[in-house]
Amino acid sequence: MTQILAIETSCDDTCAAVLDGPRILSNVVSSQARLHARFGGIVPEVASRRHLELINPVIDAALEDAGRDLDAIDAIAVTTKPGLIGALLVGVNSAKSLAAATAKPLIPVDHLQGHVAAAYLEPDPIEPPFLALIASGGHTLLAEVREEGRFAIAGQTLDDAAGEALDKAARLLGLGFPGGPAIQREAEDGDPDAFPMPIAMAHDGSLDFSFSGLKTALVYAVRDLGPERTRERRADLAASFQAAVVGQLVAKLRRALDLGEWRSVALGGGVAANGPLRDRTAALCEERGIALKLLPFELCTDNAAMIGSAARFAEAIPYPRYLELDAAAR
Ligand code: KG4
Ligand code: ZN
After folding, report:
1. Distance (Å, rounded) from C-alpha 137 to C-alpha 299?
2. How many CA atoms, within 13 angstroms, populate the side-chain half-sphere of residue 73?
């Protein structure tokens, strides 16, 4: 079972990829970000409808880029959870239809397993054991990976995800969507120490995260400044907020390294595309003499290659047993 067509539609990116084992033959992502930008965030119903329009062309493009037709594919993998339920259903139903029409096996994949499994892709795979920090728009967790295809959660967010916090902050500052890259750009001209932000969860002793207090701190800062001064101080606000998010992520990673005997670390999820997070994690790992796996940007944010990678360690369901298979929001 080496050639896999993978499909990912859990959020606002319509994605398909073809893999030969850990080798990516094609990886097509049609981002809906511009469509959702005018709403300041992802509108689930709009995302589902757009997935419906994009899914077939995106799958065709993935097969064409890989130079394969469907006959050459051994199994079809698809994200079944977690995510926006309507969005997931488009991918799941497309995968089921294609698999059933060709009597191929179907491999259901968990989106978070996908973010971790991105680290196994060639040309630069890493092998367990490693500690993975996965930070995206929907999730923030520290995962202990001791064997390929499995992880144990050492800590996770108790409220908002890191990317969600950045998206909300960007919206509050009028910086548009998606917020993470917008905050990073704006922060380049700002002073990260200009506005003190609470260092959440610094002293609780756990490996869990919390970002909702940070968001409240920003709401108060913006309210106290008023619209005009908020605009003037926008770069400082963005830099301070980003520093607090990155600071918490790195502090928890540091604590997790203190608690275990880890020799390598991997960063994943959309927020792992963040420059300051990559720099500070690199500095921490260098200080500890630990290897760091930084994924290329296109494998940090949502994509189907990571789903195809996770599929190699998941159970394939033979035709026609998957016809009843459903998607799940969580
Ligand atoms: O993994 P992903 O593409 O989708 C989910 O599974 O959620 O992550 C999207 C998140 C968004 O919140 C976006 O603002 C954030 O990743 N993001 C970034 C950067 N690029 C994307 N956050 C900080 N800095 C970036 N450069
Ligand atoms: Zn994701």
Report:
1. 15
2. 32
Tens-digit pLDDT profile for residues 123-140: 999 999 999 999 999 999
Tens of pLDDT, residues 218-251: 999 999 999 999 999 999 999 999 999 999 999 9
The angle formed by the CA atoms of residues 106, 111 and 115, to the nearest 5 degrees, is 120
- Name the superfamily (CATH) of residues 3-117+302-324: ATPase, nucleotide binding domain (3.30.420.40)
Residue 141 CA to ligand 2 center (angstroms) comes to 12
Could you say which architecture CATH assigns to the domain 127-300? 2-Layer Sandwich (3.30)
Task: Report d(CA 103, CA 101) in Å as an integer.
Answer: 6
Residues lining ligand 1, CB < 6 A?
Answer: 11, 136-138, 163, 166-167, 178-181, 184, 269-271, 273-274, 301-302
The verdict on pTM exceeding 0.90 is yes
Query: How many CB atoms are closer than 10 A to CB 281?
Result: 24
Confidence of residue 1 (pLDDT cuts 50, 70, 90): low
242 Cα nearest atom in ligand 1: 23
Q: Which residues in the chain are classed under CATH 3.30.420.40?
A: 3-117+302-324, 127-300
Which residue's CA is the closest to the ligand 1 atom numbered 7? 137
Pick the atom of ligand 1 nearest to 301's CA: 3
